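Fold this sequence, please.
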Amino acid sequence: MAQVKVYYDREGNTLTVWFGNPADEYIAEETGEEIVLMKDRQGKVIGFEKLNFSMQSADAVRMAFETTAA
């Protein structure tokens, strides 16, 4: 089963999403749109970080996931 890890840093105003193992991060690449892509040694994107992300209330965060056929 795949896991998605989501971290919200209220002080740093970042939202980080991992759909791969964070320990496998080899390089981080900024896209220029306040998005940083984290990649493994093979260049596969295993996560991303949204810079300057803020929420009105961090008390309750709802997330929805949808899967598609590959």
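The longest strand covers residues 45-50. The two ends are 15 Å apart (CA to CA).
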